[in-house]
């Protein structure tokens, strides 16, 4: 494809994308295809001869679009949103044009420096403690990763190394000694990562990858499924009794199932007594809400308890997948754990210590130019436009929650609606005469009859969720927490 062909093809593609976007509500939100639908429509092997764009483009509408789940559809109320906007698409286009696996500053200085600038813009827009800024005396800063899961495992590795080396230093073991290596190998088997049982599965997976143990701490329904100090203290004592050493914990601002928020203020004194425990705050979805001062004033200053904080622009903040923003109070913990030098990376700018080489802040070597799309979105919308988007979603969520409350003869809210997410279920009392009648959603069934009614409510709720999805008018997710099944409706689209 030469420049003239590209011009024609790109114009045609852009027109098709605009038409697709404008008509998105007309498409079925879930595709009707069966597993294995695509391969029979395509040749068994790649074409020997070049094909013109005029032959390739029609396959988008005929073969690909029918197999898409439309995450941008207003009928999509499942999981969490995955938004995209025109400025963000333009960022992707330029990023593709300037492709560079910019692992070192030298590999594309603008790529590195724009990332530092937009991460500082975001930290300020979220009103995060100044320790997370690249100019902070603590050595803070932000970096863009592919996903929240990647951010978790990256921080876990940094936490593990920080914990092990601090312990070996305290024991007076010489750096790079055999004795130290042996001690580290022994201690690793005792390390345990923690989170509440409501935290995203990425913490458990991260521990698996980091080669340490993992324990979850039950969060109580009577506390809105938020992790509290008493439960954390009990878990830490149990670890000690079992000879385990907690080195990392994920706290969550907006859990996946119900958007619960852990009790950061109440947990702070407990965490202070464990200075070697790395605290990561996972705000993958709800972190976007911190763009609004009325919400950041409730949460942002509390983020000071965290060594690291992560939010996904690619969920609720107008930037397309992938753009996961990780902020740390001390970048040296990342670079000490993840920096491997090799002769082919050496250059005078790295040696000068004056530049950032983001390869040392992450697991992969190469990295995409993701800062462009964040930069375009922040400039095109302005903070005001971004705030308007969040407030609008929260308002729609409140309208929906009020509709559920208005049918309290049929439904009950499982937890208070939070950040545009409403979780509700069939009221057990309408299903039978068990003891669950006339109870609150945080009722814990004691008798066999209560339990049976609860189980029926779970089964009926799940059945209703499945029926709604089968009808295809909207797509939503069922989940369960604290033995209660419920339907989640998210308004972020
Ligand atoms: N953390 C939370 C709270 C989430 O809800 C999710 C996904 O929905 C994740 C982490 C994982 O996000 P990612 O796909 O960016 O790894």
UniProtKB/TrEMBL annotation:
List, alphabetically, the SUPFAM superfamilies matched: PLP-dependent transferases
PANTHER family the record matches:
GROUP II PYRIDOXAL-5-PHOSPHATE DECARBOXYLASE, MIP05841P
The biological processes this protein is annotated with in GO are:
amino acid metabolic process; carboxylic acid metabolic process
InterPro entries annotated for this entry? Aromatic_deC, PyrdxlP-dep_de-COase, PyrdxlP-dep_Trfase, PyrdxlP-dep_Trfase_major, PyrdxlP-dep_Trfase_small
Q: Cite the entry's keywords alphabetically.
A: Decarboxylase, Lyase, Pyridoxal phosphate
Claim: NAD is one of the keywords in the record: no
Give residues where N6-(pyridoxal phosphate)lysine occurs.
315
Gene3D superfamilies attached to this UniProt entry = Aspartate Aminotransferase, domain 1, dopa decarboxylase, N-terminal domain, Type I PLP-dependent aspartate aminotransferase-like (Major domain)
Q: Which GO terms describe its cellular component?
A: cytoplasm
Which cofactor(s) does the record list? pyridoxal 5'-phosphate
Q: Which family would the database say this protein is a member of? A: Belongs to the group II decarboxylase family.
N-terminal signal peptide: none
Q: What does the record give under GO molecular function?
A: carboxy-lyase activity; pyridoxal phosphate binding
Any single Pfam family the record assigns to this protein: Pyridoxal_deC
What's the protein called, per UniProt? Aromatic-L-amino-acid decarboxylase
Q: Does the keyword Lyase apply?
A: yes
